[in-house]
Amino acid sequence: MTKTRDLLRKLINPFTTRHDSGNKVNKEESIEAIVEFERKAFQYDTLVTATRNFSEKLGEGGFGPVFKGLLEDGREVAVKRLAVGSRQGENQFANEASLLSGVQHKNVVHLYGFCIHGADRLLVYEYVANESIDKILFACSNDCPKRAELNWQRRYNIMLAVAKGLLYLHEGTHTPIIHRDIKAANILLDQRWVPKIADFGMARLFPADESHVNTRVVGTNGYMAPEYLMHGWLSPKADVYSFGVVVLELVTGCQCHCFVPFPGTDAKNLLEWAWMLYKERRILEMVDLEIRPTLDLAQVSTSVHIGLLCTQAEPKQRPDMRRISILFTKQPSTLEEPSRPGKPGCRYTSRPHLTSGTLDSSRNSLSSLGSGIGSSSYSTLASTSASASASSSKGKGLQV
To answer: In the CATH scheme, what architecture does the domain 133-394 have?
Structure first.
């Protein structure tokens, strides 16, 4: 019972932390906040009815299964249900519910509410019709007819929109939010192909006056920035790095952790290959064959250039999301020249202190860090705790 009370206190916190100029809680605002909290708290029976007793399963992730539902007011929803006995899911539930409670942006998935019923923990999201990008982008055209619809202009629009969503998370919220797991699988597409950043189970708040914080490493191998993977140094530039990988995936149609070296090249991974072709002015060769008839060469060149800038080894050499949004409007010839991406310097060569179970595959991946992203055996990493409650030490002013 105490555990449930603590969880409820954490969930209601974002609604009741509004203060007046005298730094005292305004009673009227507090009442409104509690009403808002109640509005987001769904009854369990409502969700049972909406999902027809959890009968239409959309998929399953580390948190647990996701079911499609229809609320009485006509809204289609996706209901995430905590896997029974999942400590990780319990933490991710609290994290997502608290972080997303005040987030409103067209390129961030909308959380309608949540439900706590006995041991059940459920999150209620808007339903996004086209699922995640990875299920379309990395599928065979014969198996996924939608892949043919993912032409260059749609891919380019996805890049622009995801950049806007990340800019909002980093600068548009009361306290900056770092997603920590930006990847194609966590970007959903609605019926109009508008992307929405999803899955905030690993996200955490970031103090605006800090250069970075030190925290436990969670995320998906292949998308994690070198300084974060090696030392747990987390800043918004970690999301920038992940975004750069996604940009290169959209251009090439290749998945970073399933990259197969092409004949006649020594490139061991996607970043190496993109860098090699960029330096040799052979950008067209990296473009997904299926979209070549529809591409805009200037946009492709700009996108590749930005992808490489975002994946620089040194965080300070990566542009922030505000700068990235501006760079998309510029010609490639006016952009600053990137250096080789993802190659850690001497400060990133020591092994990080990892918590048990957080990065079980790191042993296999560290050998490939010389170029930032390994060539074959990457998997989604399980978070062992909510990032909102994970202990961390602040590194104010430390250069990373």
So the answer is: Orthogonal Bundle (1.10)
